[in-house]
Design goal:
Number of helices: 6
Helix content: 25-40%
Structural class: alpha/beta
Strand content: 15-25%
Largest sheet: 7 strands, mixed
CATH class: Alpha Beta
Number of strands: 7
Low-confidence stretches: none
Mean pLDDT: 93
Radius of gyration: 17 Å
CATH topology: Maf protein
């Protein structure tokens, strides 16, 4: 069976989320400079990243199947928390999130006949976490490739006291918004 879309990502979580809405994709990761611009607002940054990923993938593969890209960032105040580079970085991020409410922003960019985009913003509140918990969590290996150093779909869920918004958006692909974009391209994600 031919995949309906190209996913410009190496994320197994995004592939699984697309399967959840009965969409087959071919993953084609692209690598771009993900450095925020000076004074760039988080909403603009995450949207730009998703758009640049879909554009880079289209440039590599040419026209054809629609290309879906997404980018997720964790934001506290106006500070963008990316993926940790080491234990110290992860410890700082998790300490900063401890007992606080932060935002998880996931932007989606779909290039097909049209270029459409969406942004999901979710409020996530962490309970207070202590140093021993951060150390133990680091040793699981889970924080390594996650924005904000945690995975809500994994063991990091024990830190989440409440969530207001899109769970799938926090995981890395907001399914409500994604399905709306796909529908504009005539790609059905509903049961027949």
């Amino acid at each position: 069976m031919t995949a309906a879309i190209i996913l410009a990502s190496a994320s197994p979580r995004r592939v699984e989320l697309l399967k959840q809405i009965h969409l087959v994709c071919d993953a084609h990761p692209v690598f771009i400079d993900e450095t925020p611009r000076e004074n760039e607002q988080p909403e603009l940054y995450v949207t730009r990243m998703a758009e640049e990923k879909s554009a880079a993938c289209r440039a590599q593969l040419g026209a054809g199947r629609p290309i879906l890209a997404a980018d997720t960032c964790v934001v506290i105040g106006q500070r963008i928390l990316g993926k940790p580079v080491n234990y110290t970085d992860a410890y700082e991020m998790l300490s900063l999130l401890s007992g606080q409410t932060h935002q998880v922003m996931t932007a989606v960019s779909l290039r097909g006949r049209l270029h459409s985009r969406a942004l999901s913003v979710t409020q996530v509140t962490f309970r207070a976490i202590n140093e021993a918990e951060i150390d133990a969590y680091w040793r699981t290996g889970e924080p390594l490739d996650k924005a904000g150093s945690y995975a809500i779909q994994g063991q990091g869920a024990i830190f989440v006291a409440s969530l207001q918004g899109s769970f799938s958006g926090v995981v890395g692909l907001p399914l409500f918004e994604t399905a709306q974009l796909l529908a504009k391209e005539g790609i059905n994600t509903q049961y027949e």
